Fold:
Amino acid sequence: MNSASTSTRTYTRTQTAVFLTEVVMGAIADILADLRIDLTTLYRDWKQDEAAIAAWIGEGSLEQVVLECHQPGGTVSPVLEFPVSYRSSGAADPKFTADRAALARYRAKVDRVPAGTVFRLLCTFSRTPSPQPGWERATRASTSGLRSLRFGTLASAPHASLSMRYLHQ
Amino acid sequence: MQRYRQIGAAPRRSASETWSVITALIADTLQRSPVIAADDVAAIMDLAAPAGRMLIAAGHLDRHAVVVAADPVDLSITTVSGAAALALEENLAPVPGGATATNWMVYLPAPEPLTDAVRRAVAGSAHLRAGGPALRTGKAAALTAAVGPVDLEALARREADR
Structure:
């Protein structure tokens, strides 16, 4: 008797969350290293930040991750925004893709910063997020007067995608 | 003998979890030696964890191997990301040869832009180095040289066929 079979893989929202979290964390590490900004707090807080961002993407509350560069003179620039776009169905794009080559090209366009510049990592939300250890309410620095450049999609997963916006003086 | 292992990263695991799996593989391999303790290996790998997590999350370990040199153990470890990470059949068993190892060194790749971060993470450790071993040849050199495309899946299949 002849037989045939087919199989489909079901991807979970958690897998989407883990994948996009690693892409954004990896992008932030590469950008900060490229700008020669001290990575000590990124090292120190990695596990709690990784867990929090994954939880928020998983529950669909995370609007965007924001990386602010605070220069010694008080200027906040550049600012990198990583917006998350959620899909209603996981079947629309059943792939996990990350455009790391594009990120490398984008990094080359990011303004250099003076020595002593420090970074701040923030998240904004489209709805009330679950509480996560190490994270507390904070206010974003003003971005008025900064020019905005859209760098396009960095990563895509079955339930959501991640893009990047660059704001600078 | 050169051995190759691939570990599933995101979306299968977070970067932190992936580094823990790599640490366990190395510790399990080397603890077979009567003179190397698993706790010592784990403690050294903890020192390298900040750099390791960044290398994994940014996809660098997909292309550049962590190399364990502990004669006769010669092990290259890379990660697999994306859908392939979910389909990957991992071999997490200790690599043969650990029982007779005495000295050991873990080489972390140090690609741009994380070169300085990796160097700082390994500075001062007698068991960690940034970059590949100096005298490697053949396939492992291809894995660690960071130049040109390397078919890591083909290498892993060849290893699995042995």
In short: Chain A is about 30% helix and 30% strand. The radius of gyration of chain A is 18 Å.
